């Protein structure tokens, strides 16, 4: 075999695509412009660096669509998910990871793979030769973004994405805060105490909302307009939608009991989740923000327990670009105008670490099959990967970034009870069907690869 696969972007999608293709005997050149050229969000040159949350969200593979994606990726021997489990931190029912060792492990696995070469030169154009996967995510460089826009004949769609602050644990006042997962969720005591909680009474909450609304915010450049992805709204944008929005969102007080004042029901609760294995850093859950740095420290120190908080990282905001995939890509994730080029990850219009890695997994296997001459069967529609597969039925006119959810799945053939009461049975039926379809697909792809050898 002489054909190489070039992959641009060493985030979740690019790293997973490289791993999947290389394990199928394909020589891979992984292009990652860092550390030679950095971004405002990245801190290192490591592959698989997490720049926002450290959570892969729910790990429930029977009742949650993202947990189902975890299961499918693990069954496909995915690098990203196996490394996440290796570097797992207590987080209730979620899969949170120690971000620095996670990225170090991803980097070590890829750099030591005999079929993978890492290149740190920036790619600024869409090549005509060889097979390529572009997985540059929300921080696609200006030059490459312009090249993509020129090729597609349209400006890339865009929205704004925000980063939550991280606090030094030893600066948190534990006489006011306490450790507890909501509803004591988790099988071990460590899991049941995975979150740090800061309570607010009504007056404190109202004052916090007033300060949040009045705080100085990041101003965008002239002509730089876009919407927000609803799954990652800045807290001030949520507050602008109504004073109670935060209290029914990331600051909801349900399922928690303050051991300092067990008889007092908090009006709102701010949760923090451990950000590293040592437990020295905590990120403020759901507190993405576009407040200016000075305003952030003032407003966030209004939270009981965080009056003297020291911040390892303050929040930020960046432009996130994505393609209208149903219009521009074919069923194999190839650019219709240039079939030698595939796209994967967030730039295709999925949202989240897990979904991005899942698209990298699919793209890597598709590219490897094309190069090796294997007859890769279509990704099964009933699997979580198939439901996410961005060219498989999305509406071009209304296409926007989306996390995986059961609303994307083909309806069940059997009739089950509707409403909230029947939800557990329905979700279990979705996941059972998906696991069977995905297992069959993995078997068929393995047989196709053997036949091509």
UniProtKB/TrEMBL annotation:
Its main location: cytoplasm. Coiled coil: none annotated. Residues 5-373 form the MnmG N-terminal domain. Keywords: Cytoplasm, FAD, Flavoprotein, Methyltransferase, NAD, NADP, Transferase, tRNA processing. InterPro entries: FAD/NAD-bd_sf (IPR036188), MnmG-rel (IPR002218), MnmG-rel_CS (IPR020595), MnmG_N (IPR040131), TrmFO (IPR004417). It is found in: Cytoplasm. The keyword Methyltransferase applies. It comes from the Bacteria. Belongs to the MnmG family. TrmFO subfamily. This is Methylenetetrahydrofolate--tRNA-(uracil-5-)-methyltransferase TrmFO. The lineage of its organism: Bacteria, Pseudomonadati, Pseudomonadota, Alphaproteobacteria, Rhodobacterales.
